[in-house]
Amino acid sequence: MQVHRFISGSFRSTSLFLLSFTPPSPESGSASIEHLSTVPANGPHQYIAQRGDRVYTTSWALPPSLSCWSVEGENVSLVGEVPITATSSYISIPPPYTHIYSMGGPTGEIHAVDPQMGAFGEKVQEVLFVKEEELEGTDKTRKALTKQRYGSHAIEISVDGLAFVPVLGTNSIEMYTLSHPSSTFSSSQRHLTHIHSHPSPRPSDGPRHLLVHPNGKRLYVVTEHTNYLDVYSIHPTSSPPSLTHLNSVSIIPTDLRPNPHDFRGDTLALHPPTPSNPSPSHIFATTRGARSGVRGWMGVWELDGEGDLIKPEEGDSVQPSSPSPVETSKDPDIGNVHRYETPTSGGKANAISLLLKRSSLSSSSHPTSLEFDTQPPQNSRRHAQMPLVPPPFEANPPVEANTTTDAGEEQDGLWILLTDDCGGKDEADEEREGCGAGVRVLDWTRGEGVRGVVAEWPSHGHEDMRGGSHAVWLD
């Protein structure tokens, strides 16, 4: 029986939530989500990153910090925490997996990966988005993530050693060079050097999240204030490296564009590689409603092998694949878009994580750990509160979530995790109409799009989670 674990944070709880998803089968006929454990943590958690059996989280708690967790079966244990200067909203762990990058508000930080524990090691660099003399008096809480003068929100790194940071406050994409790693573990190899500030195409776009195509040639950016997905060409060999804006597509339907401030551009994800499509075949982007009662949207566009949006051929006609809330349309200048209206506004969430469907899986897809030091670092502030000793860290696990394996036949579809923050109560302490579940699983199939919600958790009124923030598939 297929069972896929995932872990979720919440904006309304300090805990993490370990859950499992069982897809529908001929025997059961329906899918389900099971709650495995609630993990006391230092939340609320805005963002979760995963590498092998290690999970890395940001937190809104003060003083600001980043945490590393070990996930083994149904056990989640703290490996270590590190203090940071300002609240972070994003974590990235790119190949060769020797360093961890985080960004948020007025600062960003690079930490080396502890090679024994897989946790945050030496702090290598702090990146500033304000003048150094202004940092002491600058807001460093979660409110700084969207400040007008600063507000860094994410970081991603290309195969050519270029780093990209969207900054809401300056309405720009900041570009950095990153030295190529050497064969030895050296922190000096991973410093960011600022080279270029590229303005967003429209005033007050508010670039929020971004992704780089695996080939390093295309950059995709979601704008929070105008609800666009922007596509850029990356020029790594120009002097200095630069960007060219190629096109923009609307995440919300055309008839809603007169009121873009009813929505907040949110997250994006690339279709995981498969044996038949080693290059991402689609890109997914979401918005959330700016207030309760305004539902969010997810847009899906098809990509060619270079990472460009595929334009429809002359005379093509595209019909809706199913009734509302699904909309499929054709933009003659850009390409086909499949839109899905989410069940609620999403609150502060409406974040997504993608998992390839499988017809069968081996009995265990958990990575086998190598023998490393298993004692947690003593500089963790919450070390004494966690009774479980984390299992050994494996630097290069053989199985990655969201990638293909030999255990299972490829299917042409995805399970999409969608988080929902409106599952609790609003500031007036009144139940939000139509809310309840903190996490949902959507069924997406190539050619048909989203076929609906197949499972959700928790039931309406559950007080442990009270709405999800960000969730990631573990296996």
Automatic annotation (TrEMBL):
Database matches in Pfam families: Lactonase
Span list, region Disordered: 186-209, 264-285, 307-347, 363-388
Domain of life: Eukaryota
Residue ranges with Polar residues bias: 318-327
Transmembrane domains' residue ranges: none
Feature: compositional bias, Basic and acidic residues: 328-341
MF annotations from Gene Ontology: 6-phosphogluconolactonase activity
Protein family according to the UniProt entry: Belongs to the cycloisomerase 2 family.
Record's protein name: Lactonase, 7-bladed beta-propeller-domain-containing protein
Organism: Pterulicium gracile
